[in-house]
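PROTEIN DESIGN WORKSHEET
SECTION A - STRUCTURE
LENGTH: 803
TOKENS:
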């Protein structure tokens, strides 16, 4: 990640321009950084309770409602069960009981009976069980057992066993429902059967091949166990007691007498076609039914309805377009609806699994958020949260404060202005650069992009034209020499020295490669008393020419002097953790990116810990963003900010730190907190009566400061901007103007600026003959100047600096 400074100056952006300050005037406060979203979606995975509008989930995949109206969410990625009250408050269930089977596992299905007992399905390699959770949170096994898989060569044997409680056996039990008699209906996905558990825990097979296993798949209608299903994953019970089943490509019904029929779809024929009955098409649908027996279906990237007459229509979303947008009908977008839950008013709640949120679809197809904040990925240009990325990696700043981000999943380099406007700068794959992962900028503004598939792409500053600069697409190797014939092996980081030499972290070759300004590739000679590089990833260079490299496998930060001597600056090889400290006492976990600021401080994305770390030139490590053990996409200061797989980092010339997040598909910016500093004080004005006077102050500080102007030490109502305009100046406006600039960390008061009124000097009457005499009335200009001097002395407020 390249660093670009302007001599010894710090650039402060003021409106459309830049103001250069000496570095000594840079904002202080070493470890307090406030992180906000610069571009990309505001949501994403997390594990935060609270009001539904700010809670976070991680791949929610099942929904259920109890008699009190509480909604339960199987939060698979967090391995928890979450509860949403009718008032919209999200909490995490505290589970108790001697059985540890529900600790730290991802749950597949949920259902609630009339007494408020919650049923949970869970499957792993050798655990395929149904648990029952009482309203007080006590957990006990309900049915199913532990076993190892056993095959006879074509089928899995002994996994679809009926019986009592733990004597029964399931294979990948998934969807659950409860009928009017309190029986729990189970979609036994791996067995291709539908099972029933009585309130006493007795398990029987209702429909599908009772031998179970992969060899039992099919789409055969008929009585009970003569019927065949293919990966049934979702079940519901309608008002007549029919069991509704969604298997791989069809919607089926099991009548109370056990007869299986197909309501919609065609066995083995996938798609997203609306229509009646067998004309409709599905792919891995999930379902639920409302009180009027309308079936709601989450299917692919859409939410659909199956009316009682067999007609299938799409309520919201667009087939084959996995994105996240709220809207009406086909204008809305989903990524992967994994569960639906009718709300009773014609609307339906949707667990949009990969968007990490619960969303609501109204009866008219209007999609709005319900709980959690959806994340998203894509390639959309736009401003701030409207923009979309797909695995953003490395980043670098140019002299004007624009950031360039290697958007790996889109094969794009994206440009982000200081205001957060995102555009597609160049498509690297068009010139043989696949999977861009790092960016560096030379003194002329040319971009060099390292691509993981073994190439370097050059983008000319003047024209934006991209060309293949070094390496060969999809060709692995370690050949030095002319750039056109050189080869790399999975390079992941790039930076550029003061002489425009490129340094590449050649990860697969476990070394640092150089590319001279003349285009000759070499291998950097390194001597080290420490362990050699194992997986060099991010790389940067400071003003003295020292290289810094993070090794993802060793979890260390290395320093390489201009003489090629390498030492471990921070961390201890192959010792993992999140400890702050100095040198070898510090710990990282899979660090990926590193950038240097003008003072020689280093910023490291600690990927495995979801933290942002700061390292001084002496190797002292502190955490400036995130909290160990917590991940997400929350903005905030220091530990209140949460990240998910931070990858790239760039240090801006104004002290800010830009961070890219692979799994949140977002770009965040951290700004050092600082009390306001006035950079330019307002100047005095002398204007004619009726004219306009304008006073302006410029200030730096974060959070962004607010302003209050004063006239003769009295606050002016509504005067709260950086500029104060006094129209139609009159005697009442004359006096001393000051402005107080404030934020949560402090305030600063400007020097006084005096507004005085002046009139034109009248033409003197012709004098009589003879010599002139002294004396006479003083000049009007003299009186004005005298009044201005008196005002300046009289109205400078006590304790405020004079102009």
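SECTION B - SEQUENCE
RESIDUE ASSIGNMENT:
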């Amino acid at each position: 990640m390249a660093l670009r400074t302007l001599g010894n100056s710090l650039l402060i952006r003021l409106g459309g321009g830049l103001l250069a300050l000496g570095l000594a005037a840079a904002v202080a406060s070493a470890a307090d950084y406030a992180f906000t979203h610069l571009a990309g979606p505001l949501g994403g995975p997390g594990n935060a309770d609270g009001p539904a509008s700010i809670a976070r989930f991680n791949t929610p995949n099942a929904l259920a409602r109890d008699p009190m109206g509480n909604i339960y969410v199987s939060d698979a990625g967090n391995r928890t069960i979450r509860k949403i009250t009718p008032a919209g408050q999200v909490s995490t269930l505290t589970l108790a009981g001697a059985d540890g089977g529900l600790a730290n596992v991802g749950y597949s299905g949920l259902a609630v009976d009339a007494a408020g007992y919650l049923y949970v399905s869970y499957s792993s390699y050798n655990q395929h069980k149904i648990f029952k959770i009482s309203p007080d949170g006590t957990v006990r096994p309900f049915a199913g057992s532990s076993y190892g898989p056993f095959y006879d060569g074509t089928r899995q044997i002994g996994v679809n066993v009926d019986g009592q409680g733990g004597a029964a056996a399931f294979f990948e039990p998934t969807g659950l429902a409860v009928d009017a008699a309190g029986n729990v209906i189970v979609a036994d996905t791996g067995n291709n059967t539908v099972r029933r558990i009585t309130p006493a825990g007795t398990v029987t097979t209702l429909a599908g091949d009772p031998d179970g296993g992969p060899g039992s798949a099919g789409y055969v209608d008929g009585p009970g166990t003569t019927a065949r299903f293919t990966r049934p994953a979702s079940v519901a019970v309608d008002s007549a007691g029919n069991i509704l089943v969604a298997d791989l490509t069809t919607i089926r019904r099991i009548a109370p007498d056990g007869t299986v029929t197909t309501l919609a779809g065609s066995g083995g024929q996938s798609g997203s076609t609306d229509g009646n009955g067998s004309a409709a098409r599905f792919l891995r649908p999930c379902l639920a039914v409302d009180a009027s027996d309308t079936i709601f279906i989450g299917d692919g990237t859409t939410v659909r309805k199956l009316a009682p007459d067999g007609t299938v229509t799409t309520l919201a979303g667009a087939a084959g377009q996995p994105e996240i947008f709220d809207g009406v009908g086909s204008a809305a977008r989903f990524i992967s609806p994994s569960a639906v839950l009718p709300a009773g008013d014609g609307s339906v709640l949707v667990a949009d699994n990969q968007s990490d949120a619960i969303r609501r679809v109204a009866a008219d197809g209007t999609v709005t958020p319900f709980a959690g904040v959806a994340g998203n990925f894509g390639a959309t240009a736009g401003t701030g949260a409207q923009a979309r990325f797909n695995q953003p990696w490395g980043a670098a700043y140019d002299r004007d404060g624009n950031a360039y981000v290697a958007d790996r999943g889109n094969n794009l380099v994206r440009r982000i202005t200081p205001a957060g406007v995102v555009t597609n700068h160049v498509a690297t794959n068009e010139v043989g650069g696949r999977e861009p992962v790092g960016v560096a900028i030379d003194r002329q503004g040319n971009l060099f992009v390292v691509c993981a598939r073994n190439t370097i792409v050059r983008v000319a500053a003047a024209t934006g034209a991209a060309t293949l600069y070094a390496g060969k697409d999809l060709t692995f190797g370690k050949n030095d020499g002319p750039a056109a014939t050189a080869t790399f092996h999975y390079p992941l980081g790039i930076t550029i020295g003061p002489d425009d030499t490129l340094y590449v972290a050649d990860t697969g070759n476990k070394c640092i490669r150089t590319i001279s300004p003349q285009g000759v590739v070499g291998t950097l000679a390194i001597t080290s008393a420490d362990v050699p590089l194992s997986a060099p990833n991010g790389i940067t260079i400071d003003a003295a020419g020292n290289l810094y490299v993070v090794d993802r496998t060793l979890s260390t930060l290395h320093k390489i002097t201009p003489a090629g001597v390498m030492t471990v600056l921070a961390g201890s090889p192959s010792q993992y953790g999140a400890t702050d400290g100095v040198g070898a006492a510090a710990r990282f976990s899979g660090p990926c990116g590193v950038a240097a600021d003008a003072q020689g401080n280093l910023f490291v994305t600690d990927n495995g810990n979801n933290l942002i770390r700061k390292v001084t030139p002496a190797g002292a490590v502190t955490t400036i963003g995130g909290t160990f053990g917590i991940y997400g996409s929350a903005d905030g200061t220091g530990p209140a900010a949460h990240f998910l797989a931070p990858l790239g980092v760039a240090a801006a010339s104004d002290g800010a730190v830009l961070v890219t997040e692979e799994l949140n598909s977002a770009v965040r910016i951290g700004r050092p907190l600082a009390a306001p500093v006035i950079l330019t004080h307002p100047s005095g004005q002398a204007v004619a009566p009726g004219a306009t006077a304008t006073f302006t102050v410029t200030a730096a500080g974060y959070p962004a400061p607010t302003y209050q102007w004063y006239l003769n030490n009295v606050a002016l109502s509504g005067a709260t901007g950086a500029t104060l305009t006094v129209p139609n100046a009159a005697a009442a406006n004359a006096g001393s103007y000051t402005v107080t600039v404030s934020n949560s960390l402090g305030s600063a008061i400007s020097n006084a600026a005096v507004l005085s009124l002046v009139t034109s000097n009248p033409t003197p009457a012709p004098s009589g003959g003879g010599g002139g005499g002294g004396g006479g009335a003083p000049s009007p200009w003299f009186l004005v100047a005298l009044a201005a001097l008196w005002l300046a002395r009289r109205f400078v407020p006590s304790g405020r600096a004079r102009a």
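SECTION C - NOTES
The first strand starts at residue 9 and ends at 14.
DSSP finds one helix and 70 strands in the chain.
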